[in-house]
Amino acid sequence: MATIYHVARRSGVSTATVSRVMKGGTGFSAATRERVLAAAGELAWVPSGSARGLASRRTGIVGLIFPDLDNTDEPGQDSPLYFDQIIRGAERAATAMGDAVLIAGSRCATGRDLVFSVASKVDGLVVLAGSLSKRDLDQIGRSVPVVLLADRAAHRGMDGVAADNRGGARAITSHLIVGHGYRELAFVGGVQRAPDSMERFAGFRDALKEAGLSIPEAPAALGGFTESGGELAMHEILRAPRPPEAVVFANDQMAIGALSTLRRARIPVPAQMAIAGFDDIAAARHVRPALTTVRQPMRDLGEQAVRLLFERVAEPDGARRAVLLSTEVVLRRSCGCGARVRAGATS
Amino acid sequence: MATIYHVARRSGVSTATVSRVMKGGTGFSAATRERVLAAAGELAWVPSGSARGLASRRTGIVGLIFPDLDNTDEPGQDSPLYFDQIIRGAERAATAMGDAVLIAGSRCATGRDLVFSVASKVDGLVVLAGSLSKRDLDQIGRSVPVVLLADRAAHRGMDGVAADNRGGARAITSHLIVGHGYRELAFVGGVQRAPDSMERFAGFRDALKEAGLSIPEAPAALGGFTESGGELAMHEILRAPRPPEAVVFANDQMAIGALSTLRRARIPVPAQMAIAGFDDIAAARHVRPALTTVRQPMRDLGEQAVRLLFERVAEPDGARRAVLLSTEVVLRRSCGCGARVRAGATS
DNA sequence: TTGTAGGCGTTATCAT
DNA sequence: ATGATAACGCCTACAA
Predict the structure, then answer these.
(1) What's the mean per-residue pLDDT of chain B?
(2) Looking at A35, A52, A69, which one is the last position of a domain?
(3) CA distances in angstroms from A262 to A235, A259, A281, A337, B198, listed in the order given
(4) Which of B82, B99, B227, B286 to mutate against chain A (most A CBs within 10 Å)?
(5) CATH number of the domain within which B106 lies
(6) Which of A144, A146, B49, B338 is the most exposed place for a label (fewest CB within 10 A)?
(7) How far apart are CA A246 and CA A208, in angstroms?
(8) Angle at Cα A130 formed by Cα A124 and Cα A132, nearest 5°?
(9) Cβ distance A61 to B120 under 8 Å?
(10) How many domains does chain B have?
């Protein structure tokens, strides 16, 4: 395998000059440049990333840590699709800076192992909420810059970016109340203490309070963020003596599951019961009736997180930042809206 | 930042011993091990990935090159979702071997350079069909092992894995003919010379031929693999003097677009026209009527590609291999099937 | 504009 | 079981 020495010899210059040409700045004649590039091409030489990283102390890689990229083998069971969008956003932002993205599920590797295999290979890390324990997070934060994604548990000394879950939930709930006149509303959460679920529930309560309606202590049901969980949750709700006029779900997948239950129960949506979700996954448009929901700027989340990371890498001691991205209500038929219109953004 | 020297000094051993302990094999006493680990922990030391890579000639990273991770800002326009599944499969296989996955889109402005910079950071590359020109591919193949994904244009001396597109298309078309008795079938392709589209069309023709029906020279229409393209393609088909009884689409997104057109035209599916797609994306289950389609084992594709890559890295001169993964027909309502049953696999 | 040379943090090969 | 030390391939002052 060719090295910089071979290229230098072949093009009749020093390794320093080869290095300069490869870096792309200035400090060499056009003729030299051509000779070097030609030699590099002939030898099929690519500068070693490892050697470069070692000498320059930059790997040109940003890492992305997920809670668990695939815990299910059920093909139909789409595990959180928003991961994918986040990856895309991150990839875009990184590519724009000439960096690449390293992805790793935290699944089997915990703490030290992960630090090992990933932290040492990157210039910085974007960590999704729920990927790491606080302990591991702190430890990893000691060896590389870290940006927290969708994790409002603002950790000491770490940058973070998140979507305005609360504002979005508040906005869509207000729409149901003000726009359609519903007075009996219920909320279906995901998992017991999941931050996302809790924030959205808080927004739901904000809207009820604002409208002077009585506000529940807890979600009417929990659906585990899955489609089947949503079906069950809806069954639970239908068993109540007096079912609500409208139900807000903590995510789209549960809402879609609920639509199945309602169809089987021959309860017309939205005529007899209005439904709203959260996320705006692709299926939300295809389901009948099309699902009214709140769009999260997932791609932007990934993009902003990487940008923030670059800033931190460039200026390690700068003030920490917390970026909040606004969400957007997407009105479709399931809430009672006739057409598919978009309402304003929150925050 | 701590280095191996600091750790060695602090634990009273040589750097060689620290290195051995970190590698995890044997060749040191338990007591030594403890001391080293303790020192490493206290100093928050993580072995530098670059230095490791330089010395050992292994980065512990496999690269994944895509045609273009996101060329659209249209949130509804899901660019090929199967990328995501492939990423997941690759991540899983790599993690199982203790490696990480580096992803990079290729078509953006800085794409070409990026690809080469990625090549130098990884032990091997999985390249998706359509990411690189043959020239670039050959060149890159000279500096790292490459596995081609979903690219049947069997390149000289490269391993490859792909799905059985032709067999899948043949199987679903046969189902329409044999299972439902349709005799007038049409095929809608994606892009003019796209390999996927062509292979699926070939499978479609295989089935017609087998049934003794007349086989068309070319697809009845082209829909560019997009939903809106599918809508247009269906309009085109409806303009024909004698529309077909069943239409097979080169992918699900186009088929879903076609369903919209048919709904607006008040043509009942499958009663008056049966529809079949390809891929089995998530939306295929949610659309009404639910879409009959062919499932591609996308996750497996990613997984197998990475496995193959590891084999090649371990044994650079082994015989090249071409892996073909079987597809599976998924019967839903759009073809005329009453229930949602699964038929057998191909190949 | 170009060359010289020291160092980046590990691993691996010999010794012991 | 452990230590000394030469690579590993590149970058970057510093010189010329």
Answers:
(1) 88
(2) A52
(3) 8, 5, 20, 18, 42
(4) B286
(5) 3.40.50.2300
(6) B338
(7) 12
(8) 55
(9) no
(10) 3
Residue B17 falls in which region: left (phi positive, over 0), alpha (psi -120 to 50) or beta? alpha
Identify whether residues B218 and B270 lie together within a single domain.
Answer: yes
Question: In angstroms, how far is C5 C1' from B121 CA?
Answer: 26
Taking the C-alpha atoms of A35, A39, A42 and A48 in order, what is their torsion angle to the nearest 10 degrees? -140
Contacts of B115 (CB under 8 A, 6+ apart): B65, B104, B106, B131, B132, B136, B140
Looking at residues B14-19, what average pLDDT do you find? 93
CA of B4 to C1' of D5 (A): 15
- Give the mean pLDDT of A194-204: 93
Tell me, what's the pLDDT at B73? 42
d(CA A298, CA B30): 48
Which two three-digit tokens encode residue A265?
A: 């129960």
Q: Is the CB of B16 under 7 A from strand D?
A: yes
pLDDT at A154 over 70: no
State which residue has its Cα closest to the C1' atom of C7: A55
- Residue span of the structural domain in which A99 resides: 61-164+298-326
pLDDT over 60 (residue A78): no
Please give the helix or strand (H or E) that residue A253 lies within, else none. Answer: helix A252-264
Residue A19, pLDDT score: 93
CB A199 within 8 Å of CB A152: yes
Region A314-337: mean pLDDT is 92
A289 and A189 within one domain? yes
Distance A26 CA to C3 C1' (A): 16
Is A210 found in the same domain as A182? Answer: yes
A16: domain CATH number is 1.10.260.40
Task: Give the model's pLDDT for residue B116.
Answer: 82
Q: Which of the 39-68 residues on chain A come under 7 Å of nucleic strand D at their beta carbon? A: 45, 47-48, 51-52, 54-56
Quick: pLDDT tens for A97-128: 889 999 987 665 555 677 678 999 999 999 98
Contact B182, B176 (CB under 8 A): yes
Q: Three-state SS across A98-162?
A: CCEEEEEECCCCCHHHHHHHCHHHCCEEEEECCCCCHHHHHHHHCCCCEEEECCCCCCCCCEEEE
Contact between B207 and B182 under an 8 Å Cβ cutoff? The reply is no
Q: Which of A221, A222, A187, A217 is nearest to A204 (CA)?
A: A187
Tens digits of per-residue pLDDT, A19-31? 999 987 787 888 8
- Are B275 and B302 within one domain? no
pLDDT tens digits, A205-238: 999 999 999 999 999 999 999 899 999 999 999 9
Measured between alpha carbons, how far is residue A131 from residues A114, A226, B207, B310 in Å? 11, 19, 48, 27
Distance CA A48, CA B54 (A): 8
Tokens of A132: 């790491």
Q: Which of A244, A299, A297, A295 is nearest to A273 (CA)?
A: A244
